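Re-run requested by the PI after the first attempt was lost when the workstation crashed. Everything re-entered from the original request form. Ligand of interest: calcium ion.
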Amino acid sequence: MRILLIEDEPKIASFVCQGLRAAGMTVDPIEDGLAGLNAVLQAQHDLLVLDIMLPQLDGFELLRKARSAGITLPVIVLSAKTDLADRLQGFDLGADDYLAKPFFIEELIARIRSLLGRNASQNEDVFSLAGITLNRLTRRADWEDRSAVLSQREFMLLDYLMRSPGYIFSRKQILQHVWNFNFDPQTNVVDVCVQRIKKKLVSTDNSTSMFPIESIRGVGYRINLKGLA
Ligand code: CA
């Protein structure tokens, strides 16, 4: 994987470079927007990690020019600006994902893997991650020595988490995606569904704490990245 990083703050750039290299990725860092745009136009990278506030040319303008030049590479925007308007502007101009500073390097790595994997294995009928194998045709899930056919909701929930490993989904996001609820029904339907998945896939003599769905207290759930390193 060859990643282009356009970021002018040396501390952040070196932290990101170090982290991505440790994860086995090749990183080319660039410090200003104009040089960054030139690198993007050469189309030699698999993914772009892009800061917004940059000298010469800001990230939004860079992205707009790149997209209008027909560049389709996936882009993750990094920015200290966390308000919704900026977030929407980023997506409007063709960002694929958005990460607010400060962030954990593990989360950036997870999102890069998720974006780069999306076009390959993640849309196939059989998909494996963190030791879990999902069959989208039969709704069968396997983990260790267990195998079970999941209900529609159970399957959608697990599939949803597995598409962005490491990313913490709130109960609200899960309710919206799996149940199509745009409101909080004030029930523990998400937790019950997670418990049912675990019950089906974890044998009684095995601890459920080993199962890669991790509960984040007060927030939601994610696929634990431990098994992904
Ligand atoms: Ca900056």
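Saved to the shared folder this time. The longest helix spans residues 105-118.
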